[in-house]
Amino acid sequence: EAEEYESVLCVKPAVLVYRVPPRASNRGYRAAEWQLDQPAWSGRLRITAKGSTAFIKLEDKTSGELFAQAPVEQFPGIAVESVTDSSRYFVIRVEDGNGRRAFIGVGFVDRGDAFDFNVALQDHFKWVRQQSELARQDVEQGPKLDLGFKEGQTIKLNIANMKKKEGATGNSRPRPAGPGGLSLLPPPPGGKSSSGDRPSSLPPPAQLPGTPITDSLLSWPQPSAAPATDVWGDFAKASGSASNQAQGNTGWVQF
């Protein structure tokens, strides 16, 4: 893993440092209590970042020697607090590297410098939150599955077994072939295949799967029973008259 480098976020050439009296209550710091006309130190301010931590560094204007440093791991937070009576003054918590800490006041002559100081810290910790959110999403999503075919990869389908299973499940009987090789439907249940017999009445309509017979279907006119007459009567009469005509013409010459 590459070592984290330190980047510069903001540089302000003029900053004033004040001694901060102990806070008597939780109402916040007030710059009016600092003796603003008598700063304890003046110099240059730089804000740098290394990883997720920002560092407020107070340095000598000429030599660049470090006067004090305040590590900031969260903003807003206890490391940097605004005063209640001005936008140009802040209270920062400085550390000496040996575990000792102190609260000092810093102020800017120009209000725009104070604005830049505040925005530099906000932008840095906004970036920190975005990086943390992206890392969390990557962990939740995990590695993505690659379901595509690789180069040269093939699959095999056993079609023979599929046909065998389809043939085993199908128990349909072969339909009898009629004239010309046409398949004939089997006779309806309860009926006879002979054309000489005719049922006295048509069976009620069969209920199709998934199509229930509704009241409107039952109200349709149903076919009535065939009349109880000899269906061969006319044909017999015609045959009889033809035979009588043949008998009356006995004088015909047959070849």
Automatic annotation (TrEMBL):
<feature type="compositionally biased region" description="Polar residues">
    <location>
        <begin position="213"/>
        <end position="222"/>
    </location>
</feature>
<feature type="domain" description="NECAP PHear">
    <location>
        <begin position="5"/>
        <end position="159"/>
    </location>
</feature>
<dbReference type="GO" id="GO:0006897">
    <property type="term" value="P:endocytosis"/>
</dbReference>
<keyword id="KW-0254">Endocytosis</keyword>
<protein>
    <submittedName>
        <fullName>NECP2 protein</fullName>
    </submittedName>
</protein>
<dbReference type="InterPro" id="IPR011993">
    <property type="entry name" value="PH-like_dom_sf"/>
</dbReference>
<dbReference type="InterPro" id="IPR012466">
    <property type="entry name" value="NECAP_PHear"/>
</dbReference>
<dbReference type="GO" id="GO:0030125">
    <property type="term" value="C:clathrin vesicle coat"/>
</dbReference>
<feature type="region of interest" description="Disordered">
    <location>
        <begin position="161"/>
        <end position="232"/>
    </location>
</feature>
<keyword id="KW-0653">Protein transport</keyword>
<keyword id="KW-0813">Transport</keyword>
<dbReference type="Pfam" id="PF07933">
    <property type="entry name" value="DUF1681"/>
</dbReference>
<comment type="similarity">
    <text>Belongs to the NECAP family.</text>
</comment>
<dbReference type="GO" id="GO:0015031">
    <property type="term" value="P:protein transport"/>
</dbReference>
<feature type="compositionally biased region" description="Low complexity">
    <location>
        <begin position="191"/>
        <end position="200"/>
    </location>
</feature>
<comment type="function">
    <text>Involved in endocytosis.</text>
</comment>
